[in-house]
Write a structure and sequence with these properties.
single chain; alpha/beta; seven-stranded parallel beta sheet; 9 helices; Sc_DH/Rdtase_CS; NAD(P)-bd_dom_sf; SDR_fam
């Protein structure tokens, strides 16, 4: 898939909104690019089982498909019944590559639900080798004083508490050579005046990644992160007004929003032995938006 294709999609996105979090991919116009047909798998993850949260759509869908191309069986977790069609589509897309897929609907902000997810995946596949903590929500709020305790609780519960719960549930089933990949964000590094609580969770995810990497290093389990910039996922129309959706990504150095398929190879790299000398690190897939240390 050429860069021209990505640029064309960027230009074709009209203003649009959705009224639910974290959004539904089927309602987006045009549809995000989640499968780069030029990306050819080479069995980097053959025989492994990946658990991907927020795997029904957006970056999670693209990552799940890329993992399937590399030979992994994939379990996806999604939040709401409204996302069921997205989840079923993703399962079918994964299985087109000759591997097995499994979907689970639940709210990961509850620790018991996280344990149940792991139990179901172990029952289905017998192992977990790759954990991708990707699910998240954001609620733009211009006035800092208007961030309510309920909003703060929901944002932190969805974005960072869930990572603690699910990782704690999964770790007893992971061994040397297994990997964890967390989804951080450009906002953890550049900040965002209207996404203060969301940015705070992403900063926490970055620190969580670094600290957990050190904690697990003797067990041979590597922990890294990807920090996407403005990517065309359901979270965007579910979050912003029509004008901001239309202009989304215009201010990056590359001059456009990214597509989920442009993130997926970074997750494959971090999940595979190609990144065997990396842990506690973050890959920035953001159109040049963040350049720093």
């Amino acid at each position: 898939m050429t860069t021209d294709k990505y640029e064309k999609i960027h230009e074709e996105v009209p203003g649009q909104t959705q009224n639910q979090q974290p959004g539904v991919e089927e309602e987006m116009t045009p549809a995000p690019i989640f499968d780069d047909k030029n990306y050819k798998g080479s069995e980097k993850l053959k025989g492994k089982v990946a658990l991907v949260t927020g795997g029904d759509s957006g970056i999670g869908r693209a990552v799940s498909i890329a993992f399937a191309k590399e030979g992994a069986n994939v379990a996806i977790v999604y939040l709401d019944e409204k996302e069921q069609d997205d989840a079923e589509t993703t399962v079918n897309l994964i299985e087109e590559y000759g591997v097995k897929a499994f979907r689970i609907q639940t709210d990961l902000s509850d620790d018991e639900n996280c344990q149940n997810v792991v139990d179901e995946v172990i029952q289905e596949f017998g192992q977990i080798n790759i954990l991708v903590n990707n699910a998240g929500k954001q609620f733009p709020t211009k006035d800092f004083l208007q961030i309510t305790p309920d909003q703060l609780q929901e944002t932190f519960s969805s974005n960072i508490y869930s990572m603690f719960y699910l990782t704690q549930a999964a770790l007893p089933h992971m061994t040397k050579g297994d990997t964890i990949v967390n989804t951080s964000s450009i906002t953890a590094y550049n900040g965002s005046p209207e996404l203060i609580d969301y940015s705070a969770t992403k900063g926490a995810i970055t620190s969580f990644t670094r600290s957990l990497a050190l904690n697990l290093i003797e067990k041979g389990i590597r922990v890294n992160a990807v920090a996407p910039g403005p990517i065309w996922t359901p979270l965007i129309p579910a979050t912003f007004d029509k004008t901001k959706v239309k202009e989304h990504g215009d201010d990056t150095p590359i001059g456009r929003r990214g597509q989920p398929a442009e993130n997926a190879p970074a997750y494959v790299f971090l999940a595979s032995s190609d990144s065997s000398y990396m842990t506690g690190q973050t890959i920035h897939v953001d159109g040049g938006d963040f350049v720093g240390s």
